[in-house]
Design a protein that fits this description.
Beta-galactosidase, Chain A, domain 5, globular, single chain
Length: about 375
């Protein structure tokens, strides 16, 4: 009974401004009894700030992002946002479901190959979500809801999507996803947070120590779409079974690293285990901040921030150069609707899609 959820009547809130469509974006502030603060926006159901202590108790914002709504609107790199309906790529923006072929909006092209990426031209990251503050024992939260209509970006079915964030007194940011559809469809939402555990705008992340709990990964083509194979990480630069620096093997002469100019690949998480499991850990030696990622998803996409090119200024006025942040996206595999050997992303009427990710912060 101590875990009963209730609507929170009073939460610190401020305006983020009006979108280009005239909708009011707001920022909501969650805090816990250890001083950790999470700021969330109803634009993209985004994480815009996350203040986390270091080993000496000093707090820094560890997520990349911007000071103005306009910058979030015009930027296409999904800073802190929920991506969907489908996180990752769908080749040529099409897939077959039962007897029908669906054509999605292609919003990305790599090496001349088009794809539908992270939900299309106006995915979950570019809409205003309904927001309700929540509370329960040991945590405060925010529940975001969005109705994605039939035909949205080409997808079938009216989908009601709910994303609930909880900031716990154990310094965890918990993200719960739930959705229903009135037609058979595909669904693969996730969160696209850029982390720098030294603090946003404080240099690159190449010295962060990362461990990924995956014995296999899904190699890509030049298009960055998966080849359809599931390959062992052993004997490759994709072996993070023992913690190593992000930059330790990132420049090795390996075709997969050349295709992506670094890491932007999907790891297979413990194929024989379902439910909540540890996907990765990241340790930053200078600050002592330690991040543990747990998820119910079967895959984890690790992106090493190589497309950041110094053209963006962050919240603290620092330039986001190459490798200024890393992204860990728990998800089903890219292009799964076109790959029978990948875990299915199908959701049928009467089903309730559910997923959970936990970002747990500690110090060493």
């Amino acid at each position: 009974m101590g875990c009963q959820t209730a609507i929170l009547k009073d939460m610190p809130t401020r305006s983020q401004g009006l979108t280009v469509h005239g909708d009011n974006a707001k920022i909501f502030t969650l805090s816990n009894n250890k001083g950790m603060v999470a700021e969330l926006s109803n634009f993209g159901a985004s994480v815009v700030r996350l203040n986390v202590p270091d080993r000496n108790g000093n707090f820094k914002d560890v997520v990349l992002g911007f000071n103005t709504l306009k910058e979030y609107e015009k930027n296409s790199d999904y800073f802190g946002a929920v991506t969907g309906r489908y996180s990752g790529r769908i080749g040529e923006g099409k897939f077959r479901l039962d007897e029908a072929t669906y054509f999605l909006n292609n919003n990305s092209e790599t090496a001349g190959f088009p794809s539908h990426l992270n939900g299309g031209n106006q995915g979950f990251d570019k809409v205003i979500w309904d927001a309700v503050p929540m509370s329960k024992f040991n945590a405060t939260g925010m529940q975001f809801t969005h109705i994605s209509p039939d035909g949205d970006e080409g997808y079938p079915g009216n989908v009601e999507m709910t994303v609930t964030y909880w900031l716990t007194d154990d310094n965890e940011l918990i993200i719960n996803y739930a959705a229903t559809s009135d037609e058979s469809t595909v669904l693969n939402p996730s969160s696209h947070i850029y982390f720098n555990l030294k603090g946003e705008g404080r240099g690159d992340v190449l010295d962060h120590m990362i461990k990924i709990e995956g014995d296999h990964y899904t190699p890509v083509e030049l298009s960055l779409l998966p080849r359809g194979e599931i390959v062992s990480v052993y004997g490759t630069p994709f072996n993070f079974k023992q913690a190593k620096r992000i930059g330790a093997t990132i420049t090795e002469d390996h075709p997969q690293l050349k295709y992506a100019d670094g890491y932007n690949h999907n790891w297979v998480l413990m194929e024989d285990k379902t439910g909540l499991k540890r996907a990765a850990t990241v340790y930053e030696p200078e600050s002592g901040r330690y991040l543990e990622v747990l998820t119910t998803e079967p895959g984890l996409n690790f992106y090493s921030g190589q497309n950041l090119d110094g053209s963006l200024l962050g919240k603290g006025g620092g330039v986001y150069d190459k490798h200024s942040g890393f992204v860990l996206v728990p998800q089903h595999f890219p292009d799964s609707p076109n790959r029978e050997n990948f875990p299915s992303t199908r959701v049928n009427p009467g089903d309730t899609y559910k997923s959970q990710t936990i970002f747990r912060f500690r110090t060493r």
